[in-house]
Amino acid sequence: MSDVAAIEVRGLKVHFANRSGTGAVRAVDGIDLTVARGAFHGIVGESGCGKTTLARTIVGLQKESEGTVLIGGRDRAEWLKSDRKSFSREVQFVFQDPLGSMSRRQSVYQTLEEPLQIHRFGSSVERRRRIAELLDLVALPETVLDRLPRSLSGGQRQRVSIARALALKPSILVCDEPLSALDVSIRAQIVNLFTSLQKQLGLTIVIVAHDLAIVREVCSDVTVMYLGRISEAGVTRPLFREPAHPYSQALLSAVPSPDPRIEAGRRRIILAGDPPSPSAPPPGCRFNTRCPVAIDVCRVEEPLLRMVPHGGVAACHLADSARRPVI
């Protein structure tokens, strides 16, 4: 079982009906993805690319239109049908807005105790002991236990949200933009917390993120999405150093460098126009309408993911070693 991936996504599609009743929004439109056990996997891309829908579908918060999600080799849909509680003990979700994901009438203690009660975890004394362990894991003082979520800072709320997700000792955390609602100074603290927890508990973490600088520092692997599809994926450091897809190159050109000499000479790639509608993606490569190096085949034939020099894959007709695009 040790060789079985933590998460496998095969042929996943999530389509939503248009309000007009004609056609569909193809939020996720045919994705294959593997996340190894113990990986810290980042999913990145512009707003509307489908990354949050993908994350929510992995944990069963959103129903797929087609395809399969396997958790530890086990079909997620069947697992949820047969034993939702055991699935919840294995996989947990951390929401973007911690305040919105918690009851505003429950104290922090009640918030942390609730999943333990639902799963009939020990006596009240054992639950209190577990809650003390959770506070220690996320570096919160016991003084927060009697407080309501609205009286906490943004960073404290997110720590409580993470502690609640860890209450049942899951092996997988899927996190939807857990840093976006936080001040820059607090983001670093939460990033360090995730890194510490991943190493200490051996967690598999999937994180949806906009901040590519953070992804570069903490994620072992990264998937770049565009308009419901994967445009590029691979080990983070090689991919960031040598992106093969023009879209990845454009995204990474916006990541500032801590070295002022490199920053002074950095060229920012500005993409023209907005992403097409996910209900009517263009023929051929979905990026061709904004790609400055697109050729005729890009406009008629959708590229398959292929191996590229950094060791990962990219969906680009020009991404092989002989014709790698540089924009």
Layout of secondary structure:
Elements: E1 7-17, E2 24-35, E3 40-44, H1 51-58, E4 66-71, E5 74-75, H2 76-82, H3 84-90, E6 91-94, H4 108-118, H5 124-137, H6 154-166, E7 172-176, H7 184-201, E8 204-208, H8 212-218, E9 221-226, E10 229-235, H9 236-241, H10 246-253, H11 260-264, E11 306-307, E12 313-314
Helix pairs in contact: 2-3, 5-6, 6-7
InterPro entries: AAA+_ATPase, ABC_transp_ATP-bind, ABC_transporter-like_ATP-bd, ABC_transporter-like_CS, Oligopep_ABC_C, P-loop_NTPase
Keywords: ATP-binding, Nucleotide-binding, Transport
Subcellular location: Cell inner membrane
Please provide a written account of the structure:
There is one protein chain. The protein is of the alpha/beta class and 327 residues long. The protein has two domains: 7-226, P-loop containing nucleotide triphosphate hydrolases (Rossmann fold); 244-327, no CATH class. It has helices spanning 51-58, 76-82, 84-90, 108-118, 124-137, 154-166, 184-201, 212-218, 236-241, 246-253, 260-264; strands spanning 7-17, 24-35, 40-44, 66-71, 74-75, 91-94, 172-176, 204-208, 221-226, 229-235, 306-307, 313-314. The protein has an eight-stranded mixed beta sheet with strand order 6-7-8-3-9-10-12-11, with helices on both faces. Strands 2-1-4-5 form a four-stranded antiparallel beta sheet.
Defining key terms:
Rossmann fold, ATP-binding, 12 strands, 32% helix, eight-stranded mixed β-sheet, globular, P-loop_NTPase, alpha/beta, 327 residues, AAA+_ATPase
